[in-house]
Amino acid sequence: MSQPAKPATPPAGRANAKKELSEHFKQYKHVWVFVEQERGHVHPVSWELMGSGRRLADKLGVELAAVVIGPAGEATRAAAAEAFCYGADLAYIVADDVLTDYRNESYTKALTDLVNTYKPEILLLGATTLGRDLAGAVATTLLTGLTADCTELEVDSDNSLAATRPTFGGSLLCTIYTLNFRPQMATVRPRVMEMPERVEKPVGRIIEFPLGMVEADIVTKILAFVPDRDKATSNLAYADIVVAGGMGLNSLENFQLVRQLAGVLGAEYGCSRPLVQKGWVSADRQIGQTGKTIRPKLYIAAGISGAIQHRVGVDGADLIVAINTDKNAPIFDFAHLALVTDAIRLLPALTEAFRKRLSPHTRDRIAS
Ligand SMILES: Cc1cc2nc3c(=O)[nH]c(=O)nc-3n(C[C@H](O)[C@H](O)[C@H](O)COP(=O)(O)OP(=O)(O)OC[C@H]3O[C@@H](n4cnc5c(N)ncnc54)[C@H](O)[C@@H]3O)c2cc1C
Questions:
Q1: What pLDDT is attached to residue 226?
Q2: Which helix (H) or strand (E) holds 241?
Q3: What is the distance between the alpha carbons of residues 76 and 144, in angstroms, rounded to a whole number?
Q4: Confidence of residue 358 (pLDDT cuts 50, 70, 90)
Q5: Which residues bind FAD (predicted)?
Q6: Which one, of 132, 197, 144, 189, lies nearest residue 28 by Cα?
Q7: In the chain, what percentage of residues exceed pLDDT 70?
Q8: 54 with 196: CB under 8 angstroms?
Q9: Which of 72, 88, 97, 178 has the most CB atoms at less than 10 Å from its CB?
Q10: 329 CB near ligand 1 (under 6 Å)
């Protein structure tokens, strides 16, 4: 979807590559963030994006709008009201009971009709399952560029969105521009951007927009709704403490040492990619470029080398403790505390020590 990759610092000749934006696209103004909600639960990535959106809007001197799509009723209005506390200047609402659960057809219509009517220059969505599905469909329908899984969003000297993301297996960063089309679309994974502070604010300007579609127009039917949060899947992205293991642990049996330490610390457990590939750990627990991005207060990595594809997923951790037998392991280049030792021996000792010293009350204090 996106145009060819550009280096992070645009070369002087970049302007030559840029065709003049058509008169039609020059009308596109303002920054929009899609507020993802399912049955009244707003995904926190939406508020993380409001922080980025606010910064971009201020640089461009334009407004920041939240876009809330959902069923008619209180939950959709509450999500819009909350958006003002995270920096929105206004909110667009498309509320219709046909939109109670996400379906690509109805949400794509709601968002593309809004874009065609109010013409934003930048549109940001979370790179969640829902956000990825919706962003691709909206970009395809609008025939514009979409940069997926961005790690940085900036406005360059000629006010274009510079959307940076890893490429070539994470070994390079590229900055992608949507030069000749609008809106400039980007998705960002949960926890990549910092959560802005919530500041209590009154509800501001709200613009309601009709869906213009009825149930009979939609081919997809919802048979059951099973929310992710009710499944026994991990909550790695939002955990305060994460303990992870890598190939240095050597076996599935030894990986249980990671789970035991995580259990005592009240932490989530995760792993590097090869453990998922071996089938030892489920994919939702993989940390890194093709797994989860985490921002815990404490990250303990045992037997993980610290390859760049792993590092990009943990760089936002406040404190990284690495256990590795090789003092030259790359993980020691970015860990805050380096323990050069055998993780298979250290992990049970740590578990035992924490078990003795930590009451559940103390654990809560570590996490706060
Ligand atoms: C496109 C692409 C995407 C990728 N995405 C991801 C991703 O999302 N997440 C990810 O993790 N990887 C990802 N990878 C793989 C990544 O490049 C590395 O191969 C992987 O992270 C290595 O896993 P590891 O550190 O567990 O294993 P290894 O590289 O094998 O490292 C094992 C480490 O354990 C140490 N060790 C050995 N024995 C012990 C012991 N007894 N105690 C302590 N330390 C010990 C070793 O010194 C070594 O540093 C990706 C690769 C590609 C090409």
A1: 80
A2: strand 241-245
A3: 28
A4: confident
A5: 272-273, 286-290, 303-310, 324
A6: 144
A7: 90
A8: yes
A9: 88
A10: yes
First-to-last CA distance in the chain?
42
Least-confidence region, from 8-22, 121-135, 291-305: 8-22
Instruction: State in Å: Cα 123 to ligand 1 middle.
Output: 35
- Identify the residue whose tokens are 């992990």: 347
Q: Among 96, 94, 92, 93, which residue's Cα sits nearest to residue 71?
A: 96
CA–CA separation, 79 and 84 (whole Å): 9
The beta-carbon contacts of 253-258 under 8 Å, at least 24 apart in sequence, are 254/344, 255/280, 255/281, 257/302, 257/343, 257/344, 257/347, 257/348, 257/351, 258/302, 258/347
Is 273 flagged in the annotation as binding?
yes
Span from the CA of 303 to the centroid of ligand 1 (angstroms): 8
272 Cβ closer than 6 Å to some ligand 1 atom? yes
| Span 238-247, average pLDDT | 96
Give the atom of ligand 1 at the shortest distance from the alpha carbon of 290: 8
Q: What is the mean pLDDT of residues 280-294?
A: 94
Please indicate whether residue 285, judged by its CB atom, sits closer than 6 Å to ligand 1. Answer: no
Pairing of strands 184-188, 146-150: parallel
| Closest residue CA from atom 6 of ligand 1 | 309
User: Ligand 1, closest atom to CA 302?
Assistant: 43
Q: Please tell me the residue having the least CA distance from ligand 1 atom 48.
A: 305
- The reply to whether 272 sits in an annotated binding site is yes
Cα dist from 289 to 68, 125, 129, 171, 294, whole Å = 29, 18, 16, 11, 11
Higher-pLDDT residue of 4 and 105 is 105
- Side chain identity at residue 113, one-letter code: D
Exposure pattern of 315-327 as b/e (b: 16+ CB <10 Å)? eebeebbbbbeee
Q: What angle do CA 346, 347, 348 make, to 5 degrees?
A: 95
pLDDT of 259 above 70? yes
Please state the φ and ψ torsions of residue 160, each to the nearest 5 degrees: -85, 155
| Alpha-carbon gap, residue 13 to 90, rounded angstroms | 37
Ligand 1 binding pocket includes 1 (Cβ within 6 Å) = no
All domains of the chain in start order, with CATH: 14-229 (3.40.50.620), 236-367 (3.40.50.1220)
